[in-house]
Amino acid sequence: MALLEYSDIRPRKYIIYNEEPYEVVDSHVARTQQRKPQNQTKLRNLLTGRVIPVSFHAAEKVEEAEINKRNAKFLYKDARKGALWFCDPKNPSNRFEIAADVIGESVKFLKENTEVDVNVFEYNDEETIIGVALPVKMDFKVTEAPPAIKGNTASGGNKFVTIETGAQIAAPLFIEAGETIRVNTETGEYVERV
Q1: Cα dist. 191→64, 138, 180 in Å?
Q2: Residue 116: its pLDDT value, please?
Q3: Using the 8-state DSSP alphabet, how is residue 153 labeled?
């Protein structure tokens, strides 16, 4: 694994800190007059989700974390255990489960047979699944939408509609139940009517 200099620790990099994987959320190299430069960072633990502030000094180096992506297909949610079942798209008999808390907020956009990228952290010959990346834009059928009152659509505005996964999305007033909409899964925002 590669070693990163203190100034190479930037946002969107994955590092190992205290033998755990972290994503660099924010970094700022501060050069004060009396002291040597230091990189003030905010790190998000990929196992717990906790964000901590850490300063790296000019002489320090950190190990870059090895995060691999694997393609997988979402099968179903086990409501009793709170686990989500996935399989290898090329070999459907190769199934595995991931806890819902590992996936986080994007669990509300998972639909059956959706292909996703599973992020796997490898360290000391052990593999740990640390997250799932959904396609950025996905299409969903609207199951419930309050009726628009005549005259309200001219001025614009939003209402909350329920999509097929049960998630609620703010959508324009003209969207009705039964229509298909495109949603940005990273922000949870309505993109367009399909």
Answers
A1: 35, 10, 11
A2: 93
A3: G
Distance CA 118, CA 17 (A): 22
Alpha-carbon span 173 to 159, nearest angstrom: 6
Residue corresponding to tokens 């190479």: 8
Amino acid at 22: Y
Question: Looking at residue 102, what DSSP letter applies?
Answer: H
Residue carrying structure tokens 């999509």? 163
Model confidence pLDDT, tens digit, residues 14-33: 899 988 889 898 999 887 76
> Whole-model pTM?
0.72
Residue reference for tokens 């972290």? 22
Domains of the chain as residue ranges with CATH: 3-64 (2.30.30.30), 67-133 (2.40.50.140), 137-193 (2.40.50.140)
- Residues 63, 17: contact at Cβ < 8 Å? no
Burial class (CB in 10 A: 0-12, 13-18, 19+), 3: exposed
Tokens of 119: 């992020």
CA 142 distance to own-chain centroid: 23
Tokens of 11: 């946002």
158 vs 172: CA distance, rounded Å: 4
Q: Which residues of 134-166 are buried (b: 16+ CB within 10 A; e: fewer)?
A: beeebebebeebeeeeeeeeeeeeebebbbebe
Count how many Cα atoms sit within 13 Å of the Cα of residue 127 in the half-sphere of its side chain.
Answer: 8
